[in-house]
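Changelog excerpt

This revision adds worked examples to the README so contributors can see how folded entries look when concatenated. The first example is reproduced verbatim below.
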Amino acid sequence: MKISILVLLFLIVLGLIFIRRPTLQESTIDITTLTLFKEGLKGVNIQLDELGYHSFSSDGKYFLFTGIKNKDTIPTKVYLLNLVTEKLKLLPGFMFGDFIDDHIVSTIDGNDLVLYNTESGKENKISTNNDLLFSGFLSMDGSLYVINSLTGIKAYNLETNTIESVSNKQYDGAYAWFSDNKRMLGFKQNNNKAFEAGYERDLGIWDIKTKNFTPLKVKGIDSNLIRSTFWIIPDKIARINTGWDDGSHDYILNIETYEVKDIGETSGALMGGMKHDINRGLFAVVNSNQTLDKPSATVYKGMEKISSSNLPENYIRENIQIVNENTLLYIRKHLGEDFIIDENAFVKLDVGNGSETVLKILPLQAYGIVSLSSDYKTWVVTAKNQFFTGKLE
């Protein structure tokens, strides 16, 4: 679960981690009229060789994008565009996690973790002390930022600019904030060795302020190698991801009743084939692994499977977005002879009947990223150093 420097430099892996209940707003901005999308990077005097991760803020005010300029001393770049004023700002360092909070962007700049406030422009800098950071999560009231690291769980107070240790074990983790801004769903390292995977972990709830951990005695989750926890419905329904290395198995848990739904093997969906939408309580899985079960797409609402279909084989599907309970967007690549990619496309899927509609053909060798506006109507796809935009009917 460590975040490698190589992966971060190339900016192609999304954290897929949702931590706060954002405030959705109906977008009234036609982004196709904005210079960045109308004229491209040249129109805003930016030179990049490759675009990476990008995302709209859930309040509809901002668009964040990353990229690489190969010959620069610091090749990775993070830009924040105000969609109302078109003001564009270069942020320090490279992305740490996804842009999932309206008012905070997290980056790593040298030996500092930087929390940039989109409204005030203030930068809170937290020294990493050369610690390896795995993930970070902002409380719903914006007061605490909890970090999972090689040396345990840390809690940074944005108001007092102080940091405290919540735990000191490498395999402890706190991932999903409760709405009380005190507790987090996560796990605690126990004393059972798991060979190359380190130590086993117990699922439970951390009280960040008292530093106490309360285990959840849940039956039906067969793996003790818990890797992460995410809300599907905050405070109630969670996704529990387990596994080690490139293995992945998922469960959905009702933490009030301890009911468990075994989603099954999800290693074929690790490359951007899983997505949460906590505003609507949705969780989507697109399995592209050609060697396991047949490729498939499934959407859950809470713990209920509401739509599912098998998909044509010999395709890689990645970087999905949820439009609604029955519609997904993603990048689809066809594997031709000798597993060479001979088609790269942005497609829309009707999950109910499994039909895929090509919305845009992309350059063959380009790594595509998809983002969807807060009103679920406008999409942006990048390939190499180009933006493509469109609207859904």
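The second example, added in the same revision:
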Amino acid sequence: MEGRGRPRGAPGRVADAQRQARPTLLLAGAFLVAAAAGTAVPHWTGRWLSLHLALAGALVLAISGATQFLAVTWGAAPPPVRAVSVTQRWLVTGGAVLVVAGRQGSWSWVVAVGAVSTVAGLVTLAVILCAIARRAVQPRVRPAITAYLVGIATGVVGVVLGGVLGSGGGGDLAGRLRDVHETLNLLGLAGFVVAGTLPFFVATEAKVKMSRRATHAAQWGIQSLMAAGLAVATIGLVGRWRVAAAAGFVGYAAALLCLLALMPRVRGKQLRWAGPRLVQTGAAITWWVGSVVYAGARAGRGLPPFAGGVVPALVVGGYVQLIVGSLSYFGPVLVGGGHEQLAASFRITRSWLGLVSGNVAVVAATVGGLRVVYGVALAAWALDGAVRAVLLVVARRRLTQTPPANAA
């Protein structure tokens, strides 16, 4: 699956990886805007529509684009063959659209086809990442790719369960399978990818070196704790063993707290440079950890772990904020250009308005009874992100259309 004609460590590999990641991350942003619009458009599936646009669409596409780009960059490996990367992107995109359309139209066979397409996209992504790992020059990427592959494996199981449930299957076990489906996708697929990325990405985002504590052994140890917690929580949910389910969530949350110890030390200089991007990453981690703890408390009482305010806290406060924060960094990088253009692009994505409105929306959704506040804050967040994305696209087009300075 490696790119042909591009030797390992060759300078052009990053540019190739950027060209492949750019449309994938643009699609992820489009799904985020669609998810925000879904809260205002009348439909019978309630918040399910927006959640699946954000998760099955934006999150999985962001995972697809970011993992390939980061693995190539950090591992100094050749990028995947373009046709394979494009196929993977459209398998995920088509799967998300079909699942949402099938559920909205009550067409169970369409939901099933969408689930199959999503699974195929995830499996293709795993094959791509394995090829990148095999060809990587830098060994530091191995813990991240391990986390990505574990997350993809749990995500495949979660998507299959979702396809069964969305197609009307499950029978008497439907309630338990739904809890497992949500747990595997939210804490497995999304959780492991985020956990594998953060020690590297926070350092990149803050322009500092990775923490010396983020050794391979430390990262793999935390991933093992997360996997153990996820397994115990899943078994507890299937068997309706409250103590086991709660213990699994608590163990998973403890692993996340250990993960924080692997983050690089950030000082005032880094905060002044990264600004809202770095603050948004910190806020997302806080919502992530808190949501897992609260989900464990609900599971301990025999309640569905991901219900009520837990879902918006984890999905919007945690993962969507991480996607937005990541896109605000990746956007300028993918636009490219010299130092002046890069600095100008980073200024475009510095958004205190997006940071504040996003967290106000999460609080309003979590507390409940503040639908107007939630709607206004979410609309402001989506509009702010859309405008900044358009400005980046315009900057990119101007850059590609500008002739070289030494042109005749």
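Reviewer comment on example two: The CA atoms of residues 218 and 262 lie 8 Å apart. The first helix runs from residue 12 to 38.
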